[in-house]
Fold each of these.
Amino acid sequence: MVDIARPSQAGRKKKLRILYGGAGILAVLLVTLGLSKLKPAAPTVERGSVWIDTVKRGPMLRQVRGLGTLVPEEIRWIPAETTGRVEKIVLRPGTPVKSDSVILVLSNPQVELDALDANWQLKAAEAETVDLKVRLESQKLDQAAVAASATANQRQARLQADADQTLSKDGLVSDINLKISQSKAEELTTRLELEQRRLEISEEAVQAQLHVQEARLEQLRGLAALKRRQLEALKVKAGIDGVLQQLPVEVGQQIATGAILAKVTVPGKLKAELRIPETQAKDIMIDQPAVVDTRNGVVKGHVARIDPAVENGTVKVDVAFDGPLPKGARPDLSVDGTVELERLADVLQVGRPAFGQEQATVGLFVLDASGREATRVQVKLGKSSVNVVEIVDGLKEGDKVILSDTSAWDAHDRLRID
């Protein structure tokens, strides 16, 4: 029996392995390429967990809202006019007061002593003034008497000189006697002029001394009035009719000058002090209509003042009320206010999204016709209000839009709505 040699199978098997390997690699590449071109699977969102609104066209009322409190229009802060110790508290916060109601009593022995001393100094100065007037009047009378005597002597001497001159013409009086009488008359005339001038100067001196004394007297009167007022201020009074709002002191407490002792307000005169976000406050103007919710009723009003400064990202806006406040309205009561900015006649609008300021472009998910899938669309916003915003571009009337916070799906442009 003869063995027949078979052809070698090694080469064929090698070729098959290479062929199968290449086919496997090609298959992997094709699968990878196909997968890379597939869109990522859209995450599924429950319909009840998102807020969906429909784009509509029509009139739009622009408003801004802010929280705030009721504050009195008329407030009187009562400072301490002098140092003292709280001796007695007569009234407590919440008590109605009159302008002359004593709220508390301070004590300060030095103020009492100073008031007594200033009063005695004033009385002493008043007595000195009376004495000075009497003395000056007496001096004035003495000088007037001297001037009157000089006047009489001058007249007598002038008459004598005239008589001697007449007699001298008849030779009855010698020339020497005539000259003597004339000289005496001239001397007394000069003395009379001096005495009259002295009387005038005396009157001016009297007025000057009286003015000095009156000035000193007025100074002491002012000092006595100040000390008396400080003494009276130890009995702290309300100053206005209203309600005692605050009393930040206690019995026995030492008070410094200028320290606040009490706060009195007029309860019937209140205004709302709203805090509006600075980004929304730019369009607020004086006299714009506003509505304030006091939690016990809604009251209409108007913007009365806008604070020029920004504090903690908000602007203070004061709203004055156009009507009476509901019962229970009191200072520091929390309120919610809305200011009407303008009315737009016909605009495309939708509910205000969770994120996105006015005049900005944001990405919003818009539902398709089936309502089962939403696609992200870039939307340009216009003017905004409290609950709605104007649509400038990117949406059309009838579109359904997800307004909830979608930041959790920022990596996806599509959502499945279940």
Amino acid sequence: MRGDLIEVFKILKGFDLVDSTRFFTRNVGVTRGHELKLLKAGCRLDCKRFAFGHRVVDNWNSLPSDVIACNTISGFKKGLDKFLEGRGFI
């Protein structure tokens, strides 16, 4: 999960040269949380349900805005580790 979230951060912030629209749909009508919330599309097949672009959305949307607001990968990793430690994942 940690590695997936780091990869999402890199894709959305432009550290990886990957077109984010190939994997994610941004939620433009966000009223709560951070500005990089993602929409989770419905799916009928397991092959899509367990694909990268679908399985990371809930975890990504649950991150606090101060973790998402980091400008460096190392800063994001530190904030993510604190968040996951507080939730009992690490």
Amino acid sequence: MKPKRAFILALLLAIAGNLQALDLTPFKYCAPVSVEQGAAPYGRLFLTPEVYDAAREDLGDIRLVGSGGDQIPYILARAEDKTTEIKYQPAIINRSTSSRGAAAATLDFGQLTVKNSIEVRTRGSNFRRAVKVEGSNDNIEFFTVVDRAYVFAVGSNTRFERIDLPTNDFRYLRITVEPMLTEESAVALEEVRAFKLENRDAERLSVQMTLLRHDEDANNRSSIYIYDLKYRHLPVNEIHLQVADDSFYRYVTIEGRDAVTRKVKIDSEDNRPRYREVEVRWERMVSDAIHRYAAPDGRRHEKLILRVPSQRTFRYLKIAVSNYDDKPLLIDSASARMIPHQIVFPIKQESDATFYVGASSLAPPVYDLRHRLRRPLRVEARESSMANIADNPLFVQAPAKQLPWSERHKVVLLIILVAVVLVLGGFILHSLRSIKSQQAQNDTSEPG
């Protein structure tokens, strides 16, 4: 009985192992994964741009497989930036309007207060107004904090009213807003708020952007730059611009798309598939402002980093710079930054594994690990690395879904339907004639 029981136990273990084994034929790509030596019970693997390009947009077709063929459970996580904001409501005193139409007001914080940002709200829907910020501790002698910044309004819904300040603890801030040259009425300064912002940025990965085109749009007085990120689905959240000009302030719009053209099927009566190429429309991502200027104390202030939402990703980016009446702004180069996803997985005796990706029809995996590991980014983990993604030798192309017979033979079906209609029509017509003939015979046979 003992040998028989041992055989049954071995059989059950083999069946259990086969149930855990993963079918590798649906995956287009694979890559070996190596884990550094150490005692940490988990491994950590950062996704590369190549992985994003090969994977589905939801990243649900990623699998880790151990040397024994079993799936390795994992948690897919992504770090986030942390911003702490302290909002102040200072008293607004000494409101005034100059003969040029400039509006001024002084903020009194009541005591020395650390701050690095203000929000200036003025009336209007389309403007670009210069702002000067000065600081003082006695409300008598003022020192320049920001010599020239700008607030924007483009239409009634798009406004840029935040101004970054050098970190300072002045009790008083004097704000002066200059009207545009084309404005005839004085600036109406509605509200000024102040903030202290503390940012803790997550680790980022740099992504190269290749310039495809640079055009000057004379009608809209804007400079157009089109870039290629090379990869799809990258969770880019920042665009860094390099500009040679020493002093400027510009309004910028960023749009994106994944392809230049797409195929649209043309309906036809025969069975041959026909398509036409149509241009893919750009989708608006974000609008912001960039600037650079030198303060009287010699310090240079600039903002050349544009934050973009990473929830919707594109391969191609179009950056439009509004120049207004100034000369076109020349962007020397641009680069992107992204916060990559991390795969956190338990390490067993064998530390090496194989990474699989590129299965379009698989459902995302569900592992118990997500219930046991609540904070995957905080666990002690060994750094892991992945070789270049290559074609999976086990990949088998799924057979194309065959269209129904009626779709594949539309012309034949149409001929059959026409024939059926003609036959039925002839039958109905013959029946009507028979009925009328019979009715006529009945009428003549009746006595008068």
